[in-house]
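Workshop exercise sheet. Pairs work together: one partner reads the sequence aloud, the other fills in the structure field after running the prediction. Swap roles for the next sheet.
Pair: D.N. / O.F.
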Amino acid sequence: MTFAFDLKGSRGGVIAALAMTIAVFLTVFLVFASAQNTQRIPLPASQNPSNRDLPISAAVWAGNTLYVSGWLDPDRKTHTDTASQTVGILKDIQKLLESQKLTLGDVAMIRVYLGGDPVKSGKMDFDGMMAGYSQFFGTTEQARTHHGAGGSARC
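Structure field:
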C-alpha cells in the first residue's frame, strides 16, 4: 500500500466500483542492489484467479526500490464493505512483501484509489478505508495520497 494502496468494496461482489487499487511503492535499502537491476515478480493467484497470461507483474524491483502494482481484495465476494476489503488487500500485500523479505514497515509511500460504495449511494467510504488501514498503519506515518476512482477491472 505506494502503497499505491487502493481499497474497495461493494455488496454482493459488485466491488469493482469500490476496488481500491493498491500500488505499493516501497523503498528498501539493499546493500548489494544495483540501480540498473530489475526483477519482475509474477502475479499471485489471488490477483489473477483465471491464471491468464497477462503482461502485468505483481511488483518490479528496480535497483533497491520495489514498485507494487494495483491490488484488489482476493475475498471481495465475502468482504462487502470498505473496511474489510481494505484489510483483505493489506493482508494479501503483506504476503507479497514477506515473499520479498519485506514488511509493511518498509512501505514509504501509499496511494489509495477509493471508489464509490454502492451501499453508501455511490459515495466513497473514507472512514471505512481508514478503519481497515489503521489496523496496519496505526503507529507509523508513511507518505500517502488518496484519490477518488471509478470502477475497476478484474482479471
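Discussion prompt: Helices lie at 82-99, 126-133. What would you look at next?
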